[in-house]
Amino acid sequence: MSTPPHRWIAVAAFALFLAFPPTFAIYCDEDDCYDLLGVSQSANSSEIKKAYYKLSLKYHPDKNPDPESRKLFVKVANAYEILKDETTREQYDYAIAHPEEVFYNTARYYRAYYGHKTDTRAVLVGLLIVISAFQYLNQWTRYTQAISMVKKTPAYKNKLKALELERKGGVGNKKKGQKQSDKNIEEGLDKELELQIKGAEKPSFWGLLAVQFLLLPYTLSKLLLWKGAWFWRYQVKKAPYSWDDACYLTQRSLRVAPDAWGNIDESTKEDLVQRHLWEKPNMDNYVADMRKEWKRRR
């Protein structure tokens, strides 16, 4: 005959109660906070305060030389810290009334006693520093790996040889002490090429999350100022778009990255800007033309 489910639940609850001490014990150890102060659970804040001052004078180490008085004084002071605050007192009363809710009461206790002691600003600063450190390390690792791969390509090696011949005046002979010179040439080539690989750029101090967070007020104010100037110039005064602003609108309409836009030749840029692609009808016509062109080439 199987055991009813409710009996298993009762057994589990009883086992849990035996395995863990009552959670109200984490407040004043094995003592009752109210008993330590000599007040009832219904005592008001004034009575609790009065009882504490009376006991603190009795057990304070400066007043009572008995070694046990110091231990009692610490217990009394701890009980007062718990009961003088409405929040912690409410939590303690709840733990007394519901000793079976072990994990819930324990979590409330540690959140109350340790959560508020940590300065949120310090936590935020520490978190930003840690994230920025990992961000920099990750970007530097990706950058060095990408550079290492580029140096293995034939294009890089050919460029290195060309630069070496250029610096040596077209003479390609090798001498005994030439290794250091070759190393210097390669280091110089790294600087001249200014290798920037998309997705693995060299890490920058200004790109770190912590720095961007510190500069956030400046960035927002600058953005608002730019938005205000844009609104005044083109919405209120109805002025024609400048070349740079028209390029920006075109680039945004085409969803082209800034570096990709910079690689487009000037004649193509001028043709795209003159189409006024930031206006929806013009953009729709341009997309239709591109589709026709693509089908024609197929």
List the helices and strands and how they pair.
Layout: H1 5-19, H2 25-28, H3 33-37, H4 45-59, H5 67-84, H6 86-97, H7 102-115, H8 120-150, H9 154-167, H10 179-193, H11 209-214, H12 216-236, H13 243-254, H14 258-262, H15 266-274, H16 280-297
Helix pairs in contact: 4-5, 6-7, 9-10
Q: Would you kindly provide a written description of the structure presented here, covering whatever features stand out?
A:
This protein has helices at residues 5-19, 25-28, 33-37, 45-59, 67-84, 86-97, 102-115, 120-150, 154-167, 179-193, 209-214, 216-236, 243-254, 258-262, 266-274, 280-297. The chain is mainly α. The chain has three domains: 5-115, DnaJ domain (Helix Hairpins); 121-207, no CATH class; 215-297, no CATH class. Helix 4 runs antiparallel to helix 5 and helix 6 runs antiparallel to helix 7. The longest helix has 31 residues, at 120-150. The radius of gyration is 37 Å and the shape is elongated.
